[in-house]
Design goal:
This protein has ten helices and 80 strands. 7% of the residues lie in helices and 36% in strands. The strands form 26 sheets. The chain has a four-stranded mixed β-sheet, with no helix packed on it. A four-stranded mixed β-sheet has the order 16-23-22-19, with no helix packed on it. It has a four-stranded mixed β-sheet with strand order 25-32-31-28, with no helix packed on it. By secondary structure, the chain is mainly β. The N and C termini lie far apart (171 Å). Helix 5 packs across helix 6. One of its GO terms (molecular function) is calcium ion binding. One of its GO terms (biological process) is homophilic cell adhesion via plasma membrane adhesion molecules. InterPro entries: Cadherin-like_dom, Cadherin-like_sf, Cadherin_CS.
């Protein structure tokens, strides 16, 4: 300005704190309120407005709070060792200025801090060097300081392997005085880690002698049994309990055994488990069937067939043990459910009476794996004021990880400049100012990581409004030309307040209140009186809000009073206009014209949103002013107003309706980045819906109508795609398609295309997969409905007798199959993975020719198959036949015709079936006798009439069931001039009188038996001692038996068979049985019934026994006449003394009373009738004596034959 004295400066509004002194603004008060003061300086010259300016005066607080460290950003923090820690923690503070600086008290060598941002960094820390670090953080600002402490705790990692103590020897001796249970050494170790990482257990890995044991908890090496070797080597290990992987160290030692072998030989190895306790570990989350441990026992052979059982600690049946002592997991284990199992296992050892029971314990640790995702709890929204200081605490988020393997680390999933999250504590601080007017709420996207898995969550922060904005006028200076009459509003002052809920009030400065007035609520200006024309008034309008604290703003308004001239009211052509505009139209495109008036007016769009998109110029032309997107808004409706500065009352309005037309500017978008379809068994029907894809197009009509098609990947035409709906349907399925795609996954590319011009398209991926673990085509089954395995009964234990293999419909290899046997009774075992069936006990065709059980296979996915398994035991010729005696004697009279049977051999074979059929042969070269191969009957081969003297021949009879299974016995043939009577069958065939006499004799014998029974009963009641009547005297009831009895020799004829037996003592059997040996099959049946036929002795008949042999006598009396060899089956009852009964005295074996030989319940061992050689009367028989004495007595008997021919002898025996 050329002449500043002529210019008048005015400060609006007038202030209590500032004033104009010339061209300078001067502070009037000492106590200026801090904040921003806004004033307008107006320059006038000769009442004409020259210029104006807006001036803002910022007043700083006199006393500013010093910067203060947020305590929530300090405190304790736990970090992992061996990890690079760059900017792992940030110290936050409020009231920071440009001069604020962070630093450490002292100089910690491992840590550093950024002086401006407050970030703390560190090198990799080692817990074993220092477990805790204390940092003191100082904040300085122009002499004002604040401090806090940060305690850094280093979490232990399992990074140190355990070691044995230095004093652990390389050799350990067992001295001569060592006993079972003695401790040879106690192993100890050390580990620099702590907690479970430093907890140690000691284990015995190798011990070839199987004589030592090691207690895991104490490390004591104990003698459990004595070894025969002088020295051997063992291997021990020390292992920690760390996670996720335990560390270990091994040591090999030499054991020197100085215990004397002589004493060793006297020791009996006890039956017990090799270890009193076992330790093992297994990772969690593994499929069932994992190997855990193998138990072994001492004092038993490998084929002992121990029955193992888990009797304690097996919660949820988590483990199983097979017949080999192998412990496996029975389900998928979870350390978070149970981290340790202590099992008690017992073993029942067969072959001892009573059965021996042994026991041991297995300590199984479940190794922790990082198999669980961390998780956030449900977070509640937080509300903070917008004037919250930077550095203030907002919230804390805490995630949980049940694995607990690593320290969780927090971060922002998407950057947000307003917030800062602590890496290890999850504490959130404010990093930059909030503004309610800019954003009423914030969503913090948080992420936590455990090193392998991530979890995310959102935290909503609502911002509370604070009255921190003063009212703002639409203009910084108003100028009005008024020619209206008083009382009419001539202008309206518009004011906005960004704070919510603010209620504004208007007021005028007191110096102009006599001429002008303003509506307190609307801000409409009017005049109280009409000033003279040409007057100019500069008035001050103040707008005040109702907030706390309250803010006000003032604006100058220049009012010029002019003459009232009639003006034409501006009008629109019509009250409503409708236009259409294509989206994405460029700015400046004219849409239409609202007025046909050529005068210039001020047109304003009343809708703030529409005013950013459209614009009306001074001639009423409507233009595009901003970007138009139909997908955001397809229709606008707003009001346009014409403002006339000269005549506010002449304002007019019209309404505009604008429809945004669609343009194909959007491509179809799939609702998912990729589609996955998992086929099931029930989804193989043609035309069945198995999935659907969907794409959306924001465009409308044809531009937004989407069609679908398959581009590639459907070479086998498995599916079809509906072009309109996107439905995926099954077209054709065969298992053979898996041959080309063994992974059972098909990647199909699909296209979504709209119908615009030009069209737009998007390509997506559909993954069609077949989960083989649940597909029926992969379900295991056995090809055979029944498995039959033929096993020879002499197959050694431990022999693999069969390898079974399950298949599936697809013929695919399945390595996860698990085989098992059910109801096997410990006879077989099967390898759960290979299907090899192994023999665990001896087979016996005779006792159990067929063993039935069930064979099962499962795939670990709940699918299994079971088929019967039959073990067909094939007989083997195990045993050689056994003769009933070691040698035989046959007495053959020289008068015996050729072809006559002279005796029968009999042998027993414990085998069954074809291998139990005994055949006979004579190994000697002789022509005297022959033997029938099947029956063992010996027949005279040629006539003996040429012989006169007594001769004895020896032959060897062989009994055999096969070429390799045979037994020999010696048979002595005594050939001499024995007086042998013709057989009764021949007399009956050739002599009628003889037949009658025989019948009479039988009847007489029956009467005799009745008389003897009556007499014996009578004598029993009178005497306690046996009484014997002499044969030559008549029997009197009162006569006592003599003390000496004449010995007799009996000659028994059974089926024309004569045998000789030696003298045996008498015996009283408990029961009697009979059998027939008429055929070899009958003999075999008798053997099965545990009753063997006995050869008769060729002894002459006496007076008592005419039609029966001594064997029949004995059988009728309840004596079992079956000689049994010592080698027999356990379930058969034999009388081993039967061989001696035939040579007993009659008085020693006959019970008192009459003898009844016709009782049906009494069965003879040989059913063939026993006939005497002649009907001549019996002679007194000598007692059993050597053969020479017998022949002498025979001569004497022949001399007395005639005199005693008609005399009958009766013998009565009382017992």
């Amino acid at each position: 300005m050329s002449n500043i004295e002529e210019v008048k400066l005015q400060l609006i509004p007038t202030s209590h704190f500032f004033e104009l002194q010339g061209a300078q603004i001067v502070q009037k008060s000492v106590n200026l309120p801090a904040g921003t003061h806004r004033v307008t300086v107006v320059a006038q010259k000769e009442e004409e407005l020259i210029d104006w300016m807006l001036l803002e005066i910022h007043v700083a607080p006199k006393f500013q709070d010093p910067p203060k460290i947020a305590s929530t950003s300090c405190g304790m923090v736990t970090v992992e060792e061996n990890m690079e820690l760059k900017e792992f923690k940030r110290i936050m503070a409020t009231g920071m200025t440009n001069s604020s600086r962070f630093r450490f008290q002292g100089s910690p060598s491992l840590f550093s801090i950024d002086p401006i941002t407050g970030y703390i960094s560190a090198n990799a820390l080692d817990r074993e060097t220092a477990q805790e670090h204390l940092l003191v953080v100082l904040l300085s600002d122009s002499g004002r300081n604040d401090s806090c402490t940060v305690r850094v705790t280093v979490a232990d990692q399992n990074d140190n392997a355990p070691q044995f103590n230095m004093d652990t020897p390389d050799e350990i001796s067992i001295n001569g005085s060592s006993q079972i249970g003695d401790i040879l050494w106690k192993f100890a170790g050390y580990d620099f880690d702590i907690g479970l990482n430093g907890k140690l257990s000691v284990d015995l890995l190798e011990d070839s002698s199987k004589s030592l044991d090691l207690v895991p908890e104490t490390g004591a090496l104990v003698v459990r049994r004595f070894a025969p070797t002088d020295s051997w080597r063992i291997k021990v290990r020390v292992i920690d309990h760390g996670s996720p992987k335990a560390l270990e160290s091994e040591k090999e030692l030499k054991i020197l055994n100085f215990r004397q072998k002589a004493s060793d030989s006297k020791d009996v190895e006890p039956i017990e488990f090799l270890r009193q306790s076992y330790i093992s570990s297994i990772d969690e989350s593994l499929p069932r069937g994992q190997f855990v441990a193998k138990l072994e026992a001492s004092g038993v052979s490998g084929a002992s067939g121990i029955t193992y059982s888990i009797v304690e600690g097996n919660q949820d049946s988590a483990f199983s043990i097979d017949s080999d002592g192998v412990v496996r997991s029975n389900l998928e284990l979870d350390k978070e459910i149970l981290d340790r199992y202590n099992l008690k296992v017992i073993g029942i050892v067969p072959g001892t009476s009573p059965a021996t029971q042994i026991s041991t314990r297995i300590d199984i640790r479940i190794n922790n794996l990082n198999d669980n995702l961390p998780s956030f709890p449900i977070s509640k929204p937080r509300r903070v004021a917008e004037n919250l200081k930077v550095g203030s605490y907002i919230a804390t988020v805490q995630a949980k990880d049940i694995d607990g393997l690593g320290i969780l680390q927090y971060s922002l999933d998407s950057p947000d400049p307003h917030f800062q999250v602590d890496r290890f504590t999850g504490v959130i601080h404010l990093a930059s100012p909030l503004d309610y007017e800019s954003s009423k709420e914030h969503t913090i996207h948080l992420k936590v990581s455990d090193g392998e898995f991530d979890a995310k969550t959102n935290l909503t922060i609502f911002v509370s409004d604070v009255n921190d904005n003063p009212p703002k006028f639409s203009k910084d200076f108003y100028e009005c030309h008024v020619a209206y009459s008083p009382g009419q509003p001539f202008a309206r002052i518009e004011v906005t307040d960004l704070d919510s809920g603010s209620k504004l009030s208007y007021s005028l400065a007191s110096d102009t209140s006599t001429i002008f007035k303003i509506a307190p609520e609307t801000g409409a200006l009017s005049m109280k009186v009409l000033p003279p024309v040409g007057e100019r008034y500069l008035i001050t309008v103040t707008a005040t809000d109702n907030g706390i604290p309250s803010f006000s703003t003032s604006v100058p308004v220049l009012v010029v009073i002019g003459e009232q001239t009639p003006t034409e009211k501006p009008v629109f052509e019509r009250q409503e206009f409708r236009f259409e505009v294509l989206e994405n139209s460029k700015a400046g495109l004219q849409i239409g014209n609202l007025s046909g008036d050529t005068r210039e007016f001020l047109y304003s769009i009343q809708d703030p949103e529409a005013s950013r998109i459209f614009h009306v110029d001074q001639f009423g032309r409507l233009f595009v002013a901003g970007p138009i997107d139909r997908e955001l808004k397809s229709y606008y409706e707003f009001t346009v107003e014409i403002e006339n500065n000269e005549m506010m009352s002449q304002k007019t309005q019209c309404k505009c309706h604008i429809t945004v037309l669609d343009e194909n500017d959007n491509s179809p978008i799939f609702t998912s980045s990729g589609y996955s379809i998992h086929l099931k068994d029930t989804q193989t029907t043609h035309g069945q819906k198995i999935g659907q894809i969907l794409a959306r197009d924001l465009d409308s009509d044809e531009n937004g109508r989407v069609s679908y098609r398959i581009l590639s990947g459907n070479d086998l035409n498995i599916v079809t795609l509906n072009t309109d709906s996107g439905v995926i349907q099954m077209n054709e399925w065969t298992d053979s398609q898996l041959e080309e795609f063994p992974n059972a996954t098909w990647q199909i590319l699909v296209e979504a295309r709209d119908h615009g011009h030009p069209y737009r398209s998007t390509v997506g991926t559909v993954t069609v997969s077949l989960k083989m673990s649940s597909w029926s085509g992969s379900a295991p089954f056995f090809v055979l409905p029944v498995y039959e395995i033929h096993v020879m009964e002499d197959t050694p234990i431990g022999t693999m007798i069969q390898r079974v293999r399950a298949s599936n419909r697809l013929g695919m290899e399945n390595k996860g199959l698990l085989y098992s046997l059910k109801e096997h009774g410990g006879k077989l075992s099967i390898d759960v993975k290979t299907g090899e069936i192994t023999l665990k006990s001896h087979m016996d065709w005779e006792s159990e020719p067929l063993i039935s059980m069930y064979l099962s296979v499962s795939d670990g996915n709940g699918r299994s198959a079971v088929v019967p398994l039959k073990i067909m035991v094939e007989p083997v010729d195990e045993f050689a036949p056994v003769f009933t005696k070691s040698s035989y004697r046959l007495q053959i009279p020289i008068s015996t015709p050729a072809g006559e049977s002279v005796g029968q051999m009999q042998a027993i074979d414990e085998d069954g079936g074809a291998h139990g059929i005994v055949k006979y042969s004579i190994s000697d070269r002789q022509s005297t006798v022959t033997i029938e191969e099947d029956t063992g009957i010996i027949r005279l081969h040629k006539s003996l009439s040429s012989r006169r003297n007594l001769t004895i021949e020896q032959i060897t009879v062989v009994a055999y069931s096969s070429r390799n299974k045979q037994t020999k016995t010696t048979v002595y043939l005594e050939i001499g001039p024995f007086d042998v009577q013709p057989t009764l069958p021949k007399l009956l065939l050739h002599s009628k009188p003889v037949q009658i006499a025989a019948a009479s004799l039988i009847l007489l014998l029956a009467l005799l038996i009745i008389v003897i029974c009556v007499c014996m009963c009578k004598s029993r009641s009178q005497k306690k001692h046996p009484e014997i009547l002499k044969p030559s005297e008549p029997r009197r009831p009162s006569q006592k038996a003599p003390k000496t009895i004449q010995k007799q020799v009996y000659s028994v004829k059974t089926g024309e068979i004569r045998t000789l037996s030696g003298d045996l003592p008498h015996h009283f059997p408990s029961n009697s049985m009979t059998s027939s040996v008429s055929t070899s099959s009958d003999a075999l049946r008798i053997l099965r019934a545990s009753s063997r036929s006995q050869m008769d002795s060729g002894i002459d008949p006496d007076n008592v026994s005419i039609n029966s042999s001594v064997t029949d006598y004995l059988v009728s009396l309840g004596v079992n006449a079956n000689p049994i060899p010592p080698r027999i089956r356990h379930n058969t009852t034999y009388d081993s003394l039967m061989n001696e009964y035939i040579y007993a005295r009659v008085e020693d074996v006959l019970p008192p009373g009459p003898i009844n030989l016709s009782t049906p319940s009494q069965h003879s061992l040989l059913r063939q009738p026993l006939l005497t050689a002649a009907r001549r009367p019996q002679i007194p028989a000598p007692s059993f004596e050597p053969l020479t004495e017998i022949f002498s007595e025979i001569v004497e008997m022949q001399k007395a034959e005639e005199s005693n021919r008609h005399r009958k002898e009766y013998v009565q025996v009382e017992i």
